[in-house]
Protein backbone atom coordinates (compact mmCIF):
# COMPACT_ATOMS: atom_id res chain seq x y z
CA UNK A 1 0.00 0.00 0.00
CA UNK A 2 2.54 2.56 1.18
CA UNK A 3 4.92 1.87 -1.70
CA UNK A 4 2.23 2.41 -4.27
CA UNK A 5 1.24 5.71 -2.71
CA UNK A 6 4.79 7.04 -2.61
CA UNK A 7 5.30 6.22 -6.27
CA UNK A 8 2.09 7.94 -7.21
CA UNK A 9 2.99 10.97 -5.15
CA UNK A 10 6.44 11.20 -6.69
CA UNK A 11 4.95 11.01 -10.13
CA UNK A 12 2.41 13.71 -9.38
CA UNK A 13 5.03 15.99 -7.87
CA UNK A 14 7.32 15.50 -10.86
CA UNK A 15 4.46 16.32 -13.17
CA UNK A 16 3.60 19.41 -11.17
CA UNK A 17 7.27 20.42 -11.03
CA UNK A 18 7.41 20.16 -14.82
CA UNK A 19 4.25 22.24 -14.96
CA UNK A 20 5.90 24.77 -12.64
CA UNK A 21 8.80 25.01 -15.06
CA UNK A 22 6.42 25.63 -17.95
CA UNK A 23 4.49 28.25 -15.95
CA UNK A 24 7.75 29.98 -15.00
CA UNK A 25 8.82 30.03 -18.64
CA UNK A 26 5.44 31.34 -19.72
CA UNK A 27 5.55 34.05 -17.03
CA UNK A 28 9.08 35.03 -18.09
CA UNK A 29 8.03 35.46 -21.73
CA UNK A 30 4.77 37.30 -21.05
CA UNK A 31 6.30 39.66 -18.48
CA UNK A 32 9.10 40.31 -20.98
CA UNK A 33 6.49 41.07 -23.64
CA UNK A 34 4.86 43.58 -21.30
CA UNK A 35 8.18 45.26 -20.49
CA UNK A 36 9.15 45.31 -24.16
CA UNK A 37 6.08 47.45 -24.82
CA UNK A 38 7.74 50.11 -22.65
CA UNK A 39 11.15 49.61 -24.28
CA UNK A 40 10.80 48.43 -27.91
CA UNK A 41 8.74 45.55 -29.33
CA UNK A 42 11.91 44.19 -31.01
CA UNK A 43 13.59 43.83 -27.61
CA UNK A 44 11.29 40.99 -26.54
CA UNK A 45 13.33 37.81 -25.95
CA UNK A 46 11.89 35.51 -28.66
CA UNK A 47 12.42 38.20 -31.30
CA UNK A 48 15.89 39.04 -30.00
CA UNK A 49 17.09 35.45 -29.59
CA UNK A 50 15.54 34.49 -32.94
CA UNK A 51 17.24 37.41 -34.63
CA UNK A 52 20.56 36.55 -33.03
CA UNK A 53 20.10 32.93 -34.17
CA UNK A 54 19.47 34.08 -37.76
CA UNK A 55 22.61 36.25 -37.64
CA UNK A 56 24.68 33.30 -36.49
CA UNK A 57 23.26 30.88 -39.04
CA UNK A 58 25.98 29.82 -41.50
CA UNK A 59 25.31 30.68 -45.17
CA UNK A 60 24.86 27.00 -46.05
CA UNK A 61 22.23 26.42 -43.36
CA UNK A 62 20.35 29.60 -44.34
CA UNK A 63 20.30 28.34 -47.90
CA UNK A 64 19.09 24.94 -46.74
CA UNK A 65 16.33 26.55 -44.64
CA UNK A 66 15.15 28.66 -47.58
CA UNK A 67 15.20 25.57 -49.80
CA UNK A 68 13.22 23.40 -47.40
CA UNK A 69 10.92 25.82 -45.61
CA UNK A 70 10.80 28.59 -48.20
CA UNK A 71 9.04 31.63 -46.87
CA UNK A 72 7.93 29.65 -43.80
CA UNK A 73 11.55 29.60 -42.57
CA UNK A 74 10.85 32.18 -39.86
CA UNK A 75 7.77 30.42 -38.59
CA UNK A 76 9.78 27.19 -38.34
CA UNK A 77 12.53 29.03 -36.44
CA UNK A 78 10.08 30.56 -33.96
CA UNK A 79 8.34 27.24 -33.47
CA UNK A 80 11.76 25.69 -32.86
CA UNK A 81 12.60 28.31 -30.24
CA UNK A 82 9.28 27.83 -28.42
CA UNK A 83 9.52 24.02 -28.44
CA UNK A 84 13.14 24.16 -27.24
CA UNK A 85 12.20 26.58 -24.46
CA UNK A 86 9.29 24.36 -23.39
CA UNK A 87 11.57 21.30 -23.19
CA UNK A 88 14.11 23.24 -21.13
CA UNK A 89 11.33 24.58 -18.91
CA UNK A 90 10.25 21.03 -18.08
CA UNK A 91 13.83 20.03 -17.25
CA UNK A 92 14.33 23.16 -15.14
CA UNK A 93 11.09 22.45 -13.25
CA UNK A 94 12.26 18.92 -12.42
CA UNK A 95 15.65 20.27 -11.42
CA UNK A 96 14.03 22.86 -9.14
CA UNK A 97 12.16 20.13 -7.28
CA UNK A 98 15.52 18.63 -6.31
CA UNK A 99 17.52 21.86 -5.91
CA UNK A 100 15.16 24.77 -5.57
CA UNK A 101 17.78 27.52 -5.92
CA UNK A 102 19.52 25.88 -8.85
CA UNK A 103 16.22 25.75 -10.72
CA UNK A 104 15.69 29.46 -10.32
CA UNK A 105 19.33 30.11 -11.21
CA UNK A 106 18.78 28.19 -14.45
CA UNK A 107 15.85 30.47 -15.32
CA UNK A 108 18.08 33.48 -14.70
CA UNK A 109 20.75 31.95 -16.94
CA UNK A 110 18.20 31.88 -19.77
CA UNK A 111 17.49 35.51 -19.01
CA UNK A 112 21.18 36.27 -19.50
CA UNK A 113 21.04 34.72 -22.99
CA UNK A 114 18.02 36.91 -23.76
CA UNK A 115 19.72 40.04 -22.43
CA UNK A 116 22.92 39.32 -24.38
CA UNK A 117 20.96 38.70 -27.61
CA UNK A 118 18.82 41.79 -27.25
CA UNK A 119 21.69 44.12 -26.42
CA UNK A 120 23.93 42.81 -29.22
CA UNK A 121 21.30 43.03 -32.00
CA UNK A 122 22.41 45.45 -34.71
CA UNK A 123 19.28 47.56 -34.19
CA UNK A 124 19.70 47.58 -30.41
CA UNK A 125 19.20 50.96 -28.79
CA UNK A 126 21.49 50.09 -25.89
CA UNK A 127 21.38 48.31 -22.54
CA UNK A 128 17.68 49.12 -22.06
CA UNK A 129 17.01 46.48 -24.74
CA UNK A 130 18.12 43.91 -22.15
CA UNK A 131 15.42 45.00 -19.72
CA UNK A 132 12.53 42.83 -21.01
CA UNK A 133 14.61 39.64 -20.77
CA UNK A 134 15.99 40.62 -17.37
CA UNK A 135 12.67 41.48 -15.74
CA UNK A 136 11.01 38.46 -17.38
CA UNK A 137 13.71 36.09 -16.13
CA UNK A 138 13.49 37.45 -12.56
CA UNK A 139 9.70 37.02 -12.62
CA UNK A 140 10.11 33.45 -13.91
CA UNK A 141 12.80 32.60 -11.34
CA UNK A 142 10.73 33.91 -8.40
CA UNK A 143 7.61 32.13 -9.59
CA UNK A 144 9.44 28.84 -9.95
CA UNK A 145 10.86 29.25 -6.44
CA UNK A 146 7.40 29.89 -5.01
CA UNK A 147 5.66 27.07 -6.88
CA UNK A 148 8.27 24.44 -6.12
CA UNK A 149 8.15 25.61 -2.50
CA UNK A 150 4.52 24.48 -2.40
CA UNK A 151 5.57 21.08 -3.67
CA UNK A 152 8.26 20.53 -1.07
CA UNK A 153 6.85 22.14 2.07
CA UNK A 154 4.01 20.70 4.18
CA UNK A 155 1.01 22.97 4.51
CA UNK A 156 0.87 25.05 7.69
CA UNK A 157 -2.34 26.28 9.18
CA UNK A 158 -2.22 28.42 12.31
CA UNK A 159 1.37 27.41 12.91
CA UNK A 160 0.53 23.73 12.91
CA UNK A 161 1.82 21.35 10.30
CA UNK A 162 -1.09 19.81 8.46
CA UNK A 163 0.36 16.76 6.83
CA UNK A 164 -2.23 16.00 4.22
CA UNK A 165 -2.24 12.64 2.53
CA UNK A 166 0.63 13.40 0.11
CA UNK A 167 2.72 15.41 2.53
CA UNK A 168 2.78 18.67 0.58
CA UNK A 169 0.66 21.71 0.01
CA UNK A 170 -1.54 20.62 -2.88
CA UNK A 171 -4.09 23.34 -2.41
CA UNK A 172 -1.49 26.08 -2.01
CA UNK A 173 0.18 24.91 -5.20
CA UNK A 174 -3.02 24.92 -7.20
CA UNK A 175 -3.92 28.42 -6.01
CA UNK A 176 -0.46 29.83 -6.76
CA UNK A 177 -0.27 28.09 -10.14
CA UNK A 178 -3.70 29.28 -11.22
CA UNK A 179 -2.97 32.84 -10.10
CA UNK A 180 0.38 32.79 -11.93
CA UNK A 181 -1.17 31.46 -15.13
CA UNK A 182 -3.89 34.11 -15.03
CA UNK A 183 -1.48 36.96 -14.26
CA UNK A 184 0.93 35.83 -17.01
CA UNK A 185 -1.84 35.59 -19.57
CA UNK A 186 -2.98 39.10 -18.64
CA UNK A 187 0.58 40.48 -18.83
CA UNK A 188 1.03 38.87 -22.23
CA UNK A 189 -2.27 40.19 -23.55
CA UNK A 190 -1.58 43.74 -22.37
CA UNK A 191 1.96 43.60 -23.77
CA UNK A 192 0.71 42.35 -27.14
CA UNK A 193 -1.90 45.09 -27.33
CA UNK A 194 0.55 47.85 -26.44
CA UNK A 195 3.11 46.50 -28.89
CA UNK A 196 0.41 46.44 -31.55
CA UNK A 197 -0.37 50.10 -30.97
CA UNK A 198 2.85 51.48 -32.48
CA UNK A 199 2.18 49.26 -35.49
CA UNK A 200 -1.24 50.89 -35.82
CA UNK A 201 0.37 54.32 -36.28
CA UNK A 202 2.47 52.85 -39.08
CA UNK A 203 -0.59 51.26 -40.70
CA UNK A 204 -2.46 54.58 -40.47
CA UNK A 205 0.48 56.47 -41.98
CA UNK A 206 0.54 54.04 -44.91
CA UNK A 207 -3.18 54.32 -45.47
CA UNK A 208 -2.87 58.12 -45.57
CA UNK A 209 -0.40 58.03 -48.49
CA UNK A 210 -1.49 59.10 -51.95
CA UNK A 211 1.29 58.51 -54.42
CA UNK A 212 1.78 61.54 -56.71
CA UNK A 213 1.73 60.98 -60.46
CA UNK A 214 5.27 60.23 -61.61
CA UNK A 215 7.06 63.02 -63.50
CA UNK A 216 8.59 60.28 -65.64
CA UNK A 217 6.04 57.48 -66.16
CA UNK A 218 7.06 53.97 -67.17
CA UNK A 219 6.72 53.00 -70.80
CA UNK A 220 3.61 50.81 -70.93
CA UNK A 221 4.39 47.10 -71.03
CA UNK A 222 3.88 46.04 -74.65
CA UNK A 223 0.88 43.75 -75.07
CA UNK A 224 3.18 41.21 -76.68
CA UNK A 225 5.29 40.90 -73.51
CA UNK A 226 2.59 38.87 -71.76
CA UNK A 227 1.97 35.49 -73.38
CA UNK A 228 -1.26 33.65 -72.71
CA UNK A 229 -0.03 30.19 -71.96
CA UNK A 230 -1.54 28.26 -69.04
CA UNK A 231 1.11 27.64 -66.40
CA UNK A 232 3.13 30.76 -67.22
CA UNK A 233 3.29 33.40 -64.43
CA UNK A 234 1.77 36.81 -65.15
CA UNK A 235 4.33 39.32 -66.39
CA UNK A 236 3.63 41.61 -63.44
CA UNK A 237 3.68 39.79 -60.12
CA UNK A 238 0.82 40.94 -57.88
CA UNK A 239 2.06 42.42 -54.58
CA UNK A 240 0.43 39.73 -52.47
CA UNK A 241 2.27 36.92 -54.27
CA UNK A 242 5.63 38.69 -54.64
CA UNK A 243 8.41 36.60 -53.11
CA UNK A 244 9.80 37.69 -49.76
CA UNK A 245 13.33 37.22 -48.48
CA UNK A 246 14.72 38.94 -45.40
CA UNK A 247 16.01 38.32 -41.89
CA UNK A 248 13.17 40.09 -40.06
CA UNK A 249 11.32 37.90 -37.54
CA UNK A 250 8.86 40.73 -36.99
CA UNK A 251 8.17 42.79 -40.08
CA UNK A 252 9.20 46.36 -39.24
CA UNK A 253 6.20 48.67 -39.08
CA UNK A 254 7.60 52.13 -39.67
CA UNK A 255 5.53 55.27 -39.23
CA UNK A 256 6.10 57.31 -42.40
CA UNK A 257 5.53 60.53 -40.43
CA UNK A 258 8.55 60.03 -38.20
CA UNK A 259 10.72 58.31 -40.82
CA UNK A 260 13.97 60.04 -41.87
CA UNK A 261 16.67 59.11 -44.38
CA UNK A 262 20.22 60.32 -43.88
CA UNK A 263 22.90 60.45 -46.58
CA UNK A 264 26.44 60.92 -45.29
CA UNK A 265 29.97 59.52 -45.32
CA UNK A 266 33.13 59.51 -47.40
CA UNK A 267 33.19 62.08 -50.19
CA UNK A 268 29.85 63.61 -49.17
CA UNK A 269 30.13 67.40 -49.32
CA UNK A 270 26.76 68.07 -47.66
CA UNK A 271 25.04 65.62 -45.34
CA UNK A 272 21.42 65.34 -46.40
CA UNK A 273 18.30 64.32 -44.55
CA UNK A 274 14.89 63.61 -46.08
CA UNK A 275 11.42 63.02 -44.74
CA UNK A 276 8.98 60.76 -46.55
CA UNK A 277 7.10 63.84 -47.78
CA UNK A 278 10.39 65.35 -49.06
CA UNK A 279 10.75 62.31 -51.31
CA UNK A 280 7.13 62.43 -52.52
CA UNK A 281 7.58 66.14 -53.35
CA UNK A 282 10.48 65.42 -55.71
CA UNK A 283 10.08 64.46 -59.37
CA UNK A 284 9.29 60.74 -59.28
CA UNK A 285 10.24 58.11 -61.80
CA UNK A 286 8.18 55.02 -62.53
CA UNK A 287 9.95 51.94 -63.87
CA UNK A 288 9.42 48.27 -64.70
CA UNK A 289 12.02 46.28 -62.77
CA UNK A 290 12.36 42.54 -62.16
CA UNK A 291 13.87 41.74 -58.75
CA UNK A 292 15.48 38.43 -57.87
CA UNK A 293 17.32 36.81 -55.01
CA UNK A 294 20.84 35.40 -54.98
CA UNK A 295 19.41 32.42 -53.03
CA UNK A 296 17.29 31.40 -55.99
CA UNK A 297 18.20 27.90 -57.15
CA UNK A 298 18.22 27.13 -60.87
CA UNK A 299 14.49 26.92 -61.71
CA UNK A 300 13.57 28.50 -58.35
CA UNK A 301 10.76 30.89 -57.37
CA UNK A 302 12.59 33.86 -55.79
CA UNK A 303 12.00 36.28 -58.62
CA UNK A 304 9.18 38.73 -59.26
CA UNK A 305 8.33 41.68 -61.43
CA UNK A 306 6.73 44.95 -60.42
CA UNK A 307 6.23 48.53 -61.56
CA UNK A 308 8.01 50.74 -59.05
CA UNK A 309 7.72 54.45 -58.32
CA UNK A 310 10.53 56.29 -56.61
CA UNK A 311 13.21 58.92 -56.54
CA UNK A 312 16.31 58.57 -58.67
CA UNK A 313 19.06 57.71 -56.18
CA UNK A 314 21.85 59.18 -58.34
CA UNK A 315 20.15 62.61 -58.10
CA UNK A 316 20.23 62.52 -54.30
CA UNK A 317 23.86 61.43 -54.30
CA UNK A 318 24.78 64.24 -56.70
CA UNK A 319 23.04 66.75 -54.43
CA UNK A 320 25.17 65.45 -51.59
CA UNK A 321 28.24 66.12 -53.73
CA UNK A 322 29.08 62.45 -54.35
CA UNK A 323 31.07 61.52 -57.46
CA UNK A 324 31.35 57.98 -58.83
CA UNK A 325 34.84 56.43 -58.63
CA UNK A 326 35.22 56.72 -62.44
CA UNK A 327 35.06 60.49 -62.00
CA UNK A 328 37.42 60.66 -59.07
CA UNK A 329 34.98 59.92 -56.25
CA UNK A 330 36.52 58.53 -53.06
CA UNK A 331 33.71 56.18 -52.07
CA UNK A 332 33.08 53.06 -54.14
CA UNK A 333 30.46 51.49 -51.88
CA UNK A 334 27.08 52.59 -50.56
CA UNK A 335 26.07 51.01 -47.29
CA UNK A 336 22.30 51.06 -46.97
CA UNK A 337 21.02 50.48 -43.42
CA UNK A 338 17.52 49.49 -42.49
CA UNK A 339 15.57 50.23 -39.34
CA UNK A 340 16.20 46.62 -38.24
CA UNK A 341 19.96 47.01 -38.53
CA UNK A 342 20.45 45.14 -41.83
CA UNK A 343 23.30 46.41 -44.01
CA UNK A 344 23.55 46.02 -47.79
CA UNK A 345 26.55 47.17 -49.84
CA UNK A 346 26.11 48.48 -53.40
CA UNK A 347 28.71 49.76 -55.87
CA UNK A 348 28.44 53.57 -56.22
CA UNK A 349 29.44 53.19 -59.86
CA UNK A 350 26.38 51.06 -60.67
CA UNK A 351 24.01 53.47 -58.94
CA UNK A 352 25.43 56.47 -60.82
CA UNK A 353 25.98 54.95 -64.29
CA UNK A 354 22.61 56.10 -65.62
CA UNK A 355 20.51 53.03 -64.79
CA UNK A 356 17.23 53.51 -62.92
CA UNK A 357 18.56 52.93 -59.40
CA UNK A 358 15.93 54.34 -57.08
CA UNK A 359 14.56 54.80 -53.62
CA UNK A 360 11.17 53.26 -54.22
CA UNK A 361 8.01 54.39 -52.45
CA UNK A 362 5.45 52.63 -54.66
CA UNK A 363 4.97 49.08 -55.93
CA UNK A 364 2.36 48.28 -58.58
CA UNK A 365 0.48 51.50 -57.91
CA UNK A 366 0.36 51.22 -54.11
CA UNK A 367 2.61 52.53 -51.35
CA UNK A 368 5.13 49.76 -50.64
CA UNK A 369 3.59 46.90 -48.67
CA UNK A 370 5.16 46.54 -45.19
CA UNK A 371 6.83 43.23 -46.13
CA UNK A 372 8.43 44.82 -49.15
CA UNK A 373 9.94 47.72 -47.22
CA UNK A 374 7.43 50.48 -46.40
CA UNK A 375 8.00 53.37 -46.36
CA UNK A 376 11.07 53.32 -48.62
CA UNK A 377 13.36 50.72 -50.14
CA UNK A 378 16.28 50.80 -52.54
CA UNK A 379 16.32 49.10 -55.95
CA UNK A 380 19.15 48.80 -58.46
CA UNK A 381 18.30 47.07 -61.75
CA UNK A 382 20.80 44.32 -62.57
CA UNK A 383 21.95 43.53 -59.02
CA UNK A 384 20.71 40.78 -56.72
CA UNK A 385 18.50 41.93 -53.85
CA UNK A 386 21.10 41.35 -51.11
CA UNK A 387 23.50 43.92 -52.64
CA UNK A 388 20.96 46.51 -53.68
CA UNK A 389 17.37 46.27 -52.50
CA UNK A 390 17.45 47.45 -48.86
CA UNK A 391 13.93 47.45 -47.40
CA UNK A 392 12.91 49.77 -44.53
CA UNK A 393 15.97 51.84 -45.40
CA UNK A 394 16.89 54.71 -43.07
CA UNK A 395 20.54 55.47 -43.68
CA UNK A 396 22.87 55.68 -46.69
CA UNK A 397 26.56 55.83 -45.92
CA UNK A 398 29.21 56.34 -48.55
CA UNK A 399 32.31 54.25 -47.87
CA UNK A 400 34.68 51.84 -49.60
CA UNK A 401 34.58 48.09 -50.18
CA UNK A 402 37.97 47.91 -48.42
CA UNK A 403 36.64 49.62 -45.32
CA UNK A 404 33.38 47.80 -44.71
CA UNK A 405 31.71 44.42 -45.33
CA UNK A 406 27.91 44.38 -45.28
CA UNK A 407 25.82 41.77 -43.45
CA UNK A 408 25.82 38.95 -46.05
CA UNK A 409 29.40 39.61 -47.09
CA UNK A 410 30.44 38.83 -43.50
CA UNK A 411 28.62 35.52 -44.06
CA UNK A 412 30.51 34.24 -47.11
CA UNK A 413 28.48 35.92 -49.87
CA UNK A 414 30.25 37.92 -52.57
CA UNK A 415 30.92 41.66 -52.13
CA UNK A 416 29.55 42.44 -55.56
CA UNK A 417 26.94 40.39 -57.38
CA UNK A 418 25.39 41.22 -60.73
CA UNK A 419 22.46 39.03 -61.67
CA UNK A 420 23.49 35.98 -63.69
CA UNK A 421 21.68 35.21 -66.94
CA UNK A 422 19.03 32.61 -66.13
CA UNK A 423 16.03 30.90 -67.67
CA UNK A 424 13.29 28.72 -66.26
CA UNK A 425 10.74 26.28 -67.69
CA UNK A 426 7.39 27.03 -66.03
CA UNK A 427 5.31 24.59 -68.03
CA UNK A 428 5.19 21.60 -68.27
CA UNK A 429 5.94 21.03 -64.60
CA UNK A 430 8.58 18.51 -63.50
CA UNK A 431 7.24 14.95 -63.78
CA UNK A 432 4.22 16.27 -65.67
CA UNK A 433 2.34 13.92 -68.01
CA UNK A 434 1.41 15.91 -71.11
CA UNK A 435 -0.36 14.19 -73.98
CA UNK A 436 1.44 13.40 -77.21
CA UNK A 437 1.03 16.06 -79.89
CA UNK A 438 1.91 19.75 -79.68
CA UNK A 439 2.83 20.70 -76.11
CA UNK A 440 3.41 24.39 -75.31
CA UNK A 441 6.67 24.60 -73.40
CA UNK A 442 6.92 28.06 -71.85
CA UNK A 443 8.81 30.00 -69.25
CA UNK A 444 10.79 33.11 -68.43
CA UNK A 445 14.39 34.24 -68.90
CA UNK A 446 16.18 37.13 -67.23
CA UNK A 447 19.45 39.03 -67.31
CA UNK A 448 18.46 42.36 -65.80
CA UNK A 449 20.10 45.42 -67.28
CA UNK A 450 21.53 43.39 -70.17
CA UNK A 451 18.27 42.07 -71.55
CA UNK A 452 17.48 38.72 -73.18
CA UNK A 453 18.36 38.22 -76.84
CA UNK A 454 17.71 34.51 -77.34
CA UNK A 455 16.23 31.49 -75.60
CA UNK A 456 16.84 27.93 -76.79
CA UNK A 457 15.29 24.59 -75.95
CA UNK A 458 16.77 21.14 -76.16
CA UNK A 459 14.75 17.94 -76.07
CA UNK A 460 16.76 15.04 -74.62
CA UNK A 461 20.18 15.09 -76.33
CA UNK A 462 18.86 16.71 -79.51
CA UNK A 463 20.02 19.98 -81.05
CA UNK A 464 19.26 23.39 -79.52
CA UNK A 465 16.19 24.95 -81.13
CA UNK A 466 15.23 28.62 -80.77
CA UNK A 467 12.18 29.38 -78.63
CA UNK A 468 9.77 32.15 -79.62
CA UNK A 469 10.43 35.24 -77.55
CA UNK A 470 7.69 37.43 -76.21
CA UNK A 471 8.29 41.12 -76.71
CA UNK A 472 10.91 42.62 -74.38
CA UNK A 473 9.49 45.27 -72.04
CA UNK A 474 12.87 46.73 -71.08
CA UNK A 475 16.37 45.36 -70.48
CA UNK A 476 15.59 45.48 -66.75
CA UNK A 477 12.70 43.03 -66.99
CA UNK A 478 12.35 39.33 -67.42
CA UNK A 479 11.20 38.01 -70.77
CA UNK A 480 8.69 35.27 -71.52
CA UNK A 481 9.16 32.63 -74.20
CA UNK A 482 7.34 29.63 -75.70
CA UNK A 483 8.34 26.58 -77.65
CA UNK A 484 5.68 24.48 -79.37
CA UNK A 485 7.04 20.98 -78.92
CA UNK A 486 5.96 17.98 -81.02
CA UNK A 487 5.89 15.60 -78.10
CA UNK A 488 6.24 11.86 -78.74
CA UNK A 489 5.23 9.22 -76.16
CA UNK A 490 7.78 8.24 -73.52
CA UNK A 491 10.09 9.96 -71.05
CA UNK A 492 11.80 13.19 -72.14
CA UNK A 493 14.07 15.82 -70.67
CA UNK A 494 13.52 19.44 -71.66
CA UNK A 495 16.37 21.88 -71.10
CA UNK A 496 16.46 25.66 -71.53
CA UNK A 497 19.26 28.20 -71.90
CA UNK A 498 19.25 31.93 -72.57
CA UNK A 499 21.58 34.40 -74.23
CA UNK A 500 21.74 37.92 -72.82
CA UNK A 501 21.85 41.26 -74.65
CA UNK A 502 25.66 41.22 -74.76
CA UNK A 503 25.54 37.97 -76.76
CA UNK A 504 26.74 35.80 -73.90
CA UNK A 505 25.01 32.44 -73.45
CA UNK A 506 24.15 31.13 -70.02
CA UNK A 507 26.79 28.73 -68.77
CA UNK A 508 26.02 25.04 -68.36
CA UNK A 509 28.28 24.90 -65.32
CA UNK A 510 26.15 24.26 -62.23
CA UNK A 511 27.15 26.26 -59.18
CA UNK A 512 25.53 26.67 -55.80
CA UNK A 513 23.80 29.90 -54.84
CA UNK A 514 26.66 30.79 -52.45
CA UNK A 515 28.64 33.03 -53.00
CA UNK A 516 27.23 34.96 -55.97
CA UNK A 517 24.18 33.19 -57.40
CA UNK A 518 23.40 29.82 -58.99
CA UNK A 519 24.38 29.07 -62.56
CA UNK A 520 23.51 26.19 -64.86
CA UNK A 521 20.68 25.13 -67.13
CA UNK A 522 17.18 24.37 -65.90
CA UNK A 523 15.71 21.10 -67.09
CA UNK A 524 12.44 19.32 -66.56
CA UNK A 525 11.71 15.61 -66.92
CA UNK A 526 8.25 14.68 -68.24
CA UNK A 527 6.46 11.54 -69.39
CA UNK A 528 4.41 11.97 -72.54
CA UNK A 529 1.31 9.73 -72.61
N1 LIG B 1 16.18 45.39 -44.49
C1 LIG B 1 16.35 44.34 -45.31
N2 LIG B 1 16.32 44.54 -46.65
C2 LIG B 1 16.48 43.50 -47.49
C3 LIG B 1 16.72 42.20 -47.01
C4 LIG B 1 16.76 42.02 -45.58
O1 LIG B 1 16.97 40.90 -45.07
N3 LIG B 1 16.56 43.11 -44.77
N4 LIG B 1 16.88 41.15 -47.88
C5 LIG B 1 17.30 41.48 -49.24
C6 LIG B 1 17.18 40.36 -50.15
S1 LIG B 1 18.28 39.09 -49.92
C7 LIG B 1 16.30 40.35 -51.20
S2 LIG B 1 16.37 39.16 -52.37
C8 LIG B 1 15.27 41.39 -51.33
C9 LIG B 1 13.90 40.77 -51.37
O2 LIG B 1 12.92 41.75 -51.47
P1 LIG B 1 11.40 41.35 -51.30
O3 LIG B 1 11.27 40.63 -49.98
O4 LIG B 1 10.62 42.61 -51.38
O5 LIG B 1 11.07 40.43 -52.45
O6 LIG B 1 15.30 42.30 -50.25
C10 LIG B 1 16.59 42.68 -49.81
N5 LIG B 1 16.45 43.72 -48.83
MO1 LIG C 1 18.21 37.82 -51.68
From TrEMBL:
Residues spanning the membrane: 75-96, 103-119, 131-151, 172-191
Domain Oxidoreductase molybdopterin-binding as annotated: residue spans: 250-408
Pfam families hit by this protein: Oxidored_molyb
Extent of the signal sequence: none
Keywords annotated in UniProt: Membrane, Transmembrane, Transmembrane helix
InterPro entries named among the record's database cross-references: Ig_E-set, Mopterin_OxRdtase_euk, OxRdtase_Mopterin-bd_dom, OxRdtase_Mopterin-bd_sf
Domain of life: Bacteria
Name of the protein described by the UniProt record: Molybdopterin-dependent oxidoreductase
Amino acid sequence: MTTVRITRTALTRDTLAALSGLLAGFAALTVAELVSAAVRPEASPVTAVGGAAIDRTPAGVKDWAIRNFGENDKFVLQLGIVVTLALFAVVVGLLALRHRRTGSAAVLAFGVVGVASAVSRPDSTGVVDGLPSLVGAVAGAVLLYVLVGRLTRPRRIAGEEQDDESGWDRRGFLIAATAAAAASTAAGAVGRTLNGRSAQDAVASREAVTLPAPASPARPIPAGAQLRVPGLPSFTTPNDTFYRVDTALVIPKVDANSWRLRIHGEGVRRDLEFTYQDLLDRPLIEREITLCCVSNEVGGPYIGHARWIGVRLADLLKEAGVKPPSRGGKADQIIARSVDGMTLGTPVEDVMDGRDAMLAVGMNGEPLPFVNGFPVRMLVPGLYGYVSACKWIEDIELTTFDAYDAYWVKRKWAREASIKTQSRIDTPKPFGRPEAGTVMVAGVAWAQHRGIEKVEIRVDDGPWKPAQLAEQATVDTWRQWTYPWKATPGGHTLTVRATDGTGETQTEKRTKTVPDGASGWHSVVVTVD
